TrEMBL record:
<feature type="domain" description="SH3b">
    <location>
        <begin position="99"/>
        <end position="162"/>
    </location>
</feature>
<feature type="compositionally biased region" description="Basic and acidic residues">
    <location>
        <begin position="70"/>
        <end position="80"/>
    </location>
</feature>
<keyword id="KW-1133">Transmembrane helix</keyword>
<dbReference type="InterPro" id="IPR058593">
    <property type="entry name" value="ARB_07466-like_C"/>
</dbReference>
<protein>
    <recommendedName>
        <fullName>SH3b domain-containing protein</fullName>
    </recommendedName>
</protein>
<dbReference type="InterPro" id="IPR003646">
    <property type="entry name" value="SH3-like_bac-type"/>
</dbReference>
<dbReference type="Pfam" id="PF08239">
    <property type="entry name" value="SH3_3"/>
</dbReference>
<keyword id="KW-0812">Transmembrane</keyword>
<feature type="region of interest" description="Disordered">
    <location>
        <begin position="47"/>
        <end position="80"/>
    </location>
</feature>
<feature type="transmembrane region" description="Helical">
    <location>
        <begin position="21"/>
        <end position="45"/>
    </location>
</feature>
<dbReference type="Pfam" id="PF26571">
    <property type="entry name" value="VldE"/>
</dbReference>
<keyword id="KW-0472">Membrane</keyword>
Length: 294
C-alpha cells in the first residue's frame, strides 16, 4: 500500500510549467534562429497564468513569429549586400565604348603612343588626312585607330568635314598609285617605265581627267619621257601641278610646265619661273600640264 500511494502522488518539479515548456521548445526554435537575441526572446517568453493553468500556446507562437521575421530580414540583407557587390563590380570593370568615326586633320598632326605631350611620336599626318576616331578622349588628346594600333592626336585638330586645302596641301596628302588607268595602253605605248608611273599616279588621283598625250616625234616627247595632261579647268591644273611637285622625288621628275611657267626639282627653292611667250595657248601650256621624267 505504501508503494502504491507513492506512485499516485503527483511528481514534484523545481521549475514552473511555463519555463519548462520554453526550455523544451528552445532546441526546436534554435534551429531556425539567426541571432542570440532571438534565443533570449524565446527563453524570456512570458508565462501568463490563470486559474485554469498556464497559456503556453501564446508564448510559443510569439517566439516562433520572431524567429521567422528575423530569418526573413537576414536573408533580405544578404541578398541586398550581394546585389551591391555585383553592381560595384560591373561599374569598376566597365570600359569606354569605342566607335569608328571619320575625321579629317585640319593641320599637320603628330601621332603619339600615349595621351601626353611628351609621349613618343610615331608619325606626322598631313592636313586633310582621313583618320578613324574612336570617340575616346583624355584631356586635350583624342584616340584614333592607326595602322592597327590605338594612337593619340591633339583633338582640336580633328574635324568632321574635310577642310578646304590649298592645291599644295592636297598634293602632299595624296598617295602614288600604279594601278592601270582607263586611258590605258594607247597612252603608255612608247613611254619609259618612269613616265608610265607618272601617268598612273595622275589618273588614279584625278579620275575626272580623260585625255593624255604621250609619245610623239617632237621635243621631250620623242624620248618617251614626257606626258601632256589635257584640261581646261585652271583650278584642276593647279592641283595636278602641285601633286606632281609634291611627289617629284618619288616620281623622278625632270620638270613640270603649266601656264607659261616652269618648275624643276633642281631649282625648287626658286618656285615657279616664267617662260617666254611661244605664241599660243597650247604652246604656252595653258590647256595642259606638261611633265617629264629623268
Amino acid at each position: 500500500m505504501t508503494g502504491r500511494h507513492r506512485l499516485e502522488r503527483p511528481e514534484k518539479h523545481d521549475k514552473p510549467l511555463a519555463v519548462r515548456a520554453a526550455v523544451v521548445t528552445a532546441p526546436v526554435l534554435t534551429a531556425g534562429a539567426v541571432g542570440v537575441g532571438v534565443l533570449s526572446s524565446v527563453a524570456a517568453a512570458p508565462s501568463a497564468s490563470s486559474s485554469d493553468g498556464v497559456n503556453l500556446e501564446s508564448s510559443v507562437g510569439d517566439a516562433a513569429r520572431q524567429v521567422a521575421d528575423t530569418s526573413d530580414r537576414v536573408r533580405s540583407e544578404q541578398i541586398t549586400r550581394s546585389t551591391d557587390r555585383v553592381a560595384t563590380a560591373v561599374k569598376v570593370s566597365s570600359a569606354p565604348q569605342r566607335q569608328k568615326l571619320t575625321r579629317f586633320t585640319t593641320d599637320s598632326l603628330d601621332v603619339r603612343v600615349r595621351p601626353a605631350a611628351g609621349a613618343k611620336t610615331v608619325e606626322e599626318l598631313e592636313p586633310g588626312t582621313k583618320v578613324t576616331y574612336t570617340g575616346v578622349d583624355e584631356g586635350q588628346f583624342s584616340e584614333i585607330a592607326y595602322k592597327g594600333e590605338r594612337r593619340w592626336v591633339t583633338g582640336e585638330y580633328l574635324s568632321k568635314k574635310r577642310p578646304q586645302l590649298s592645291a599644295a596641301e592636297e598634293g602632299s596628302s595624296m598617295g602614288v598609285s600604279d594601278g592601270a588607268c582607263p586611258s590605258g595602253s594607247d597612252v603608255e605605248s612608247g613611254l619609259t617605265d618612269a613616265a608610265v608611273k607618272v601617268h598612273r599616279a595622275v589618273c588614279n588621283n584625278f579620275p575626272e581627267i580623260s585625255t593624255y598625250l604621250g609619245y610623239d616625234a617632237h621635243g621631250e616627247h620623242s624620248s618617251g619621257k614626257a606626258i601632256d595632261i589635257m584640261l581646261s579647268d585652271q583650278a584642276l591644273g593647279d592641283r595636278v601641278a602641285e601633286f606632281l611637285k609634291a611627289h617629284a622625288a618619288e616620281l623622278d621628275l625632270y620638270d613640270v610646265i603649266y601656264r607659261q611657267r616652269i618648275w624643276t626639282p633642281v631649282r625648287a627653292s626658286e618656285g615657279w619661273r616664267s617662260m617666254p611667250d611661244r605664241g599660243s595657248a597650247t604652246a604656252n601650256h595653258y590647256d595642259h600640264v606638261h611633265v617629264s621624267v629623268n
